[in-house]
Specification:
Elements: H1 14-17, E1 22-27, E2 33-40, E3 43-50, E4 58-59, E5 70-73, E6 79-84, E7 93-98, E8 107-108, E9 117-122, E10 129-138, E11 141-148, E12 154-158, E13 164-169, E14 175-180, E15 186-192, E16 197-204, E17 216-218, E18 224-229, E19 237-242, E20 248-252, E21 258-259, E22 273-275, E23 282-288, E24 292-296, H2 299-308, E25 315-321, E26 327-333, E27 341-345, E28 351-355, E29 369-375, E30 381-387, H3 414-421, E31 426-429, H4 439-445
Antiparallel strand pairs: 1-2, 2-3, 3-4, 5-6, 6-7, 7-8, 9-10, 10-11, 11-12, 13-14, 14-15, 15-16, 17-18, 18-19, 19-20, 21-23, 22-23, 23-24, 25-26, 26-27, 27-28, 29-30, 30-31
């Protein structure tokens, strides 16, 4: 087949793998300021700028040794917190900066050599307070602490008896633990503070939850927890767990998609639960198939979501709002406009585009990504993503990206942006063995991680849309998807944009359904 005449953009690798110009934006609780990550002395640091004025943004963290990737607003507009390790040792400390005194040095709130914090969480009903786990006593055991953000005082709430893998603290101070049993199951237990004993509440089958139960977040009243459950189902859905009886009550589900639990292995991705910043109540949930779907669970948020989704044809990724729920800063996952970020005021309808993280990478440079489904040798359908060069004859073999601990998704990545510029196809397979895929896939792949279930021997695929096969004109068919042979080397390129799935499920998709990763540099 003759080559298609087209000038393909050839960019240097640095154009795809360099740090973003800006990224990780969020709005302050009072809605007056926006924080984001941008370079200062060739390292990512936290910058803050005003929402309503043209005042120049200023850098508030000034770390010229290591880039900052995680920060937290507090309910007091004076304080901002961020996390940093020492020279890459992954011993994360929590630092506080004073936004009212920019010249003051950052204060290390956890100044314990060799220790690290995990599970930092502000307490919604106790302003100025937070809880965190810290291994300052023994490196292999994380104790639970309460933190006074203004004073820096740390108070031990519970000492780990040795087997506790995680802690929960209700607004009333009741404690619950996660532990792994000898059989590999997960036990939720109530902690008796007086005796230090554990009273079991419920046990989850570890084969169904190889990475733990995700999400697992307390309800605001402290009597239950919102969890990702696949009890009696192949799909992960949202349920409420009663902390006294252990009973599950369905809250929300998608008929074909799983609750998006990828943040369990990549904290740079958003939680599957969208919660009210002021009350902690549930606003919505992220579901993931070939593309993302957000289910609104609150009328006000439903109205906000309808307008937010008009800002881009990408998938909403990170969202933050002020305490009134009127002012929002959101970022989108997109295959040709990665991380594009918007400000939106629901009270006025105003919206604006503060920045693109990679202004040099846009639709004129990046090739489109198409969701497809391939069949493994055992007949299991594997949701995958194919990126072909734009307007040029594809050359070379597909490049398989990803590992058994991660579920790939639609959206630009450095590799999938770089290879198509060299007229090379990029193919990412979402392995059946990945724990954040459907429950039966994880069970079926147990014991077969190295290769048998992850090798695709068939090159059959369904259409790229999440709701049926796509015709050559890019229209969406309402018919059930069919299996066909993909024309991976055919001349027409895939459509420039896959449609965002509807928030209402109408028809099925085409397939059944590390350590601390803090990279903000991955394309969102």
């Amino acid at each position: 087949m003759s080559a298609i005449p087209h000038e393909v953009a050839h960019l240097a690798g640095e154009d795809f793998f360099s740090a973003p110009v800006r990224t990780g934006a969020s709005i302050s609780p009072d809605g007056t300021r926006i924080a984001y990550l941008a370079q200062w002395r060739e390292r990512l640091n936290v910058w803050v700028e005003s929402v309503d004025s043209d005042e120049e943004a200023h850098c508030v963290t000034t770390d010229d040794n290591r880039s900052v990737h995680a920060y937290h607003w507090t309910d007091d507009p004076r304080w901002l917190l961020y996390e940093q390790d020492g020279d890459g040792d992954e011993n994360w400390h929590l630092y506080r900066v004073d936004l009212e005194n920019p010249d003051a040095e950052a204060v290390d709130l956890t100044p314990f050599p060799g220790a690290k914090i995990i599970g930092f969480e502000p307490q919604v009903r106790r302003p100025g307070k937070a809880i965190l786990s810290l291994n300052r006593r023994k490196l292999t055991e994380f104790d639970l602490f309460g933190l006074d953000i203004a004073t820096g005082d740390l108070t031990m709430l519970a000492e780990n008896p040795g087997q506790v893998a995680g802690w929960l603290c209700t607004p009333d101070g009741e404690l619950y633990t996660h532990t792994w049993t000898l059989d590999g199951d997960i036990e939720l237990a109530r902690w008796e503070a007086g005796t230090g004993t554990l009273c079991p509440v419920i046990t989850f089958d570890g084969a169904d939850y190889p990475l733990g139960v995700q999400p697992f977040q307390l309800t605001p009243d402290g009597t239950g927890a919102w969890i990702g459950s696949n009890r009696d189902s192949d799909l992960t859905r949202l349920a409420r767990l009663d902390l006294v009886t252990g009973e599950e009550t369905p809250v929300d589900s998608h008929p074909f998609f799983d609750l998006d639990t990828r943040s369990a292995v990549s904290p740079s991705l958003p939680s599957p639960l969208i919660r009210d910043r002021r009350t902690g109540e549930l606003l919505g949930g992220h579901y993931l198939g070939e593309r993302q779907v957000i289910h609104p669970l609150d009328p006000h948020f439903g109205a906000v979501l309808e307008n937010l989704e008009k800002l881009s044809d990408g998938d909403l990724s990170t969202l933050s709002s002020d305490v009134s729920g009127q002012r929002w800063v959101v970022a989108f996952t997109h295959h040709r406009d990665p991380g594009v970020t918007y400000y939106y005021d629901h009270s006025t309808g105003e919206s604006r585009l503060p920045f693109r993280p990679y202004p040099h990478l846009g639709p004129e440079v990046l090739a489109p990504m198409t969701p497809i489904t391939v069949l493994a040798r055992d007949g299991l359908a594997l949701l995958s993503y194919l990126t072909l060069p734009t307007g040029a004859e594809p050359a070379g073999l597909p490049l398989v990206h990803g590992g058994p601990w991660y579920r790939d998704g639609w959206g630009s990545t450095p590799w999938c942006g770089y290879w198509p510029t060299a007229a090379t196809r990029c193919f990412r397979s979402t392995s059946a063995a990945r724990p954040v895929t459907a429950r039966h896939s994880s069970r079926r792949a147990s014991g077969s991680w190295p290769g048998r279930c992850t090798t695709a021997s068939s090159t059959r695929s369904t259409g790229p849309s999440g709701r049926g096969t796509r015709t050559g004109t890019g229209s969406r068919s309402s018919a059930a998807p069919t299996v066909a042979t993909p024309a991976w080397s055919a001349s027409p390129s895939p459509p420039t944009s896959s449609p965002r799935p509807s928030t209402s499920a109408a028809s099925p998709p085409s397939s059944p359904s590390c350590a601390r990763c803090r990279s903000s540099l991955s394309r969102t």
